[in-house]
Design brief:
8-stranded parallel beta barrel, TIM Barrel, 19% strand, alpha/beta, 39% helix, 325 residues
């Protein structure tokens, strides 16, 4: 059994990017309520990163997990970006976070950089260990160094018992496939490339993961918000911009399918990735207690097999049309 196989990842995990003030300020009261509601509902897997609000997410999450027994939950964070003191005169909204620029990010995929990033994260979290470390967005930085130096460093840290499993997190299926083929990692965190709307970009990756026993944690399953509402608005977001008309039409077609089967589009979006044998978990962003409850309801919604069969038929038709084009 791989290291990931021994972790017993739950179907639903808590994504803590919003605790880092993603897009807007999350109040302390909202953060308190979200983590408490998640814990009370039985969620026992939490994911964060230094990138999320320049360490704000790690600090907030660690403070709120501190009262709970450490052996009762899984915690993951990420390496590859060291945080250095910054000017503190502006903000980080260019990177999507409503926080002051009290730190700046510095790429660090060398062994010393990976280990220092891990140490910094433990300091911010205020905890003695994390269970999983992901190399974060290597394609946006020195990718070759991340593969040649960062992944072996992570594997050594796992073998030393510093963490229980290691992986790579990215929206780029190509770099994730490259990482899987090194044979060094246990998990990938795949962002927005295996969803109701997008499958082809990750086909090779999913095949490789299944063959090698590497688990997939699916994130950004709403494709930046396009699948987050049953009634798809004309200005729905997609890939952090406005959704193109073809995507809007596809989302509305899927919403109509869901309605025919007595469920909603977000219900399908949350559960869809778990249909693949390599997908071990879905991590969803949770800013408030209400979002936690909503995500739990979506995960628990009874989706008829007939709905999945209809989706599979539409996918086959789309692949056939694509191959004949």
């Amino acid at each position: 059994m791989s290291a990931a196989g021994a972790l017993a990842l739950p179907r639903l995990g808590f994504g803590a990017a919003q605790l880092g003030n993603l897009y807007r300020v999350t109040t302390d009261e909202e953060a308190d309520g979200a983590v408490r509601a998640a814990w009370d509902a039985g969620i026992r897997s939490f994911d964060t990163a230094p990138h999320y609000g320049l360490g704000t997410s790690e600090r907030r999450l660690g403070q709120r997990l501190a009262p709970y027994p450490r052996e009762e939950y899984l915690l993951s964070t990420k390496v590859g970006r060291l945080l250095r003191p910054g000017p503190g005169t502006g903000d980080d909204t260019a990177n999507g976070f409503a926080v002051p620029d009290h730190h700046v990010r510095e790429w660090a995929f060398s062994e010393s950089g990976v280990r220092r990033s891990h140490e910094q994260s433990l300091e911010r979290l205020g905890l003695d260990r994390v269970d999983i470390l992901f190399a974060h967005d290597p394609e946006e930085g020195p990718e070759d160094q991340a593969i040649a130096e960062g992944l072996p460093a992570l594997a050594r840290m796992r073998d030393e018992g510093l963490v229980r499993a290691v992986g790579v997190g990215s929206k780029d299926a190509r770099v994730l496939t490259r990482a899987v083929r090194t044979g060094l990692i246990d998990l990938v965190m795949l962002s927005g490339r295996y969803t109701l709307l997008e499958q082809e970009a990750s086909r090779e990756l999913r095949e490789e993961c299944e063959a090698r026993g590497v688990g997939i944690i699916a994130v950004s399953v709403f494709n930046s918000g396009l699948l987050a509402q049953h009634e798809v608005p004309e200005d729905a977001p997609y890939e952090y911009g406005r959704a193109p008309q073809a995507m809007l039409e596809r989302a509305r077609e899927l919403a109509a399918l869901a309605e025919r089967h007595g469920i909603t589009l977000p219900d399908l979006a949350v559960q869809y990735p778990l249909r693949h044998p390599a997908v071990r978990s879905v991590a969803l962003g949770m800013r408030t207690a209400a979002q936690v409850r909503s995500n739990l309801e979506r995960m628990a919604a009874p989706v008829p097999e007939a709905a999945w069969a209809e989706i599979e038929r539409l996918e086959r038709e789309a692949r056939a049309a694509g191959s004949s084009a």
